[in-house]
Amino acid sequence: MKFDRFAGLASVVGIILILTMIAWLGLWGPLDLSHLKEWQTSLASGFALIAAGIAYWGATAKVRFDREIAERDEMRRKLALYLKVEIAFSQLMENLRSRQGKFIFATGIEGAVFAAEDFDFEEPPELEEAWTSLDIFPRHLIAEIRNVRLWLRKLVSLKKQIGDKRIQPNSPVEDQPWLIEHGKEAISNAWQSAAVVVQDLKPLIHELAPEMDENARFFKIHGEPDDHAMEHDDDQE
Questions:
Q1: Is the CB of residue 131 less than 8 Å from the CB of residue 84?
Q2: Which residues pair with 167 in a beta bridge?
Q3: Which domain holds residue 13?
């Protein structure tokens, strides 16, 4: 790589200059600066600073290179997780909202019956992955990811409480009809938190991986317009 060659060259030059200075001091001893003119003293000091700068640049080249590699790897890791969470939460949000209506209009639906499966929402595996990498998410989204997990687990708890029962809004107290209202609350909060995560991840994803302009995308798929065909269309007009 060009970078490696440049770093190696800088190191070699720095080492040569340092060895030259050591050899000079060993053979002729320290410079008698009292006999040098003022500009000569400045020139000698300048050479020493240049040698030290080159040596430092060469010595730290590997550190800078490793840092750049680590930053690129972190960006790829962040982008991959953002994309997975955005897709998974979008699907989760649609699933929650599609089944929310039954809970919202339960009292107005004649004969509406709720069973354990109405509270059954699978926690996407991407949520667990996000949970183990919360450090790469903006702080406000950490709270929303927590809320998604909290309300999904609330639904799991409600599902267990219902068990084999079938309940209606006007069911006897012993059947715990209020679980329907609790389910409605959990579904509403879960999809709203998921929606916040999806919406706020979009600009972050666009920053890391900008989408192609619509016109550029069209030409990429269908090719550039033929100049002769365009001229022919103009003649027909």
A1: no
A2: 114
A3: 2-70
What distance in Å separates the CA atoms of residue 187 and residue 150, rounded to the nearest whole number? 11
Judge if 170 and 108 occupy the same domain: yes
The Cα angle at residue 22 between residues 19 and 26, in degrees rounded to 5: 135
| pTM score, whole prediction | 0.66
Cα 45 to Cα 38: distance, rounded to the nearest angstrom: 11
Residue 101 domain-assigned (yes or no): yes
CB 82, CB 206: distance < 8 Å: no
Q: Please check whether residue 163 lies inside any domain of the structure.
A: yes
- DSSP of 118-130: GG--PPPHHHHHH
Q: Does 124 share its domain with 79?
A: yes
For 126-150, letters b (16+ CB in 10 Å) and e give bbeebeeeeeebeeebeebbebbbe
144-172 tens-digit pLDDT = 999 999 999 999 999 999 999 999 988 89
C-alpha–C-alpha distance, residues 73 and 31, integer Å: 50
**Number of separate domains in the chain:** 2
Q: How far apart are CA 69 and CA 110, in angstroms?
A: 63
Contacts of 179 (CB under 8 A, 6+ apart): 114, 158, 161, 162, 167
Q: CA 88, CA 145: separation in Å to the nearest integer?
A: 12
- Condensed to tens digits (0 to 9), the pLDDT of residues 83-125 reads 999 999 999 999 999 999 999 988 887 788 999 999 999 999 9
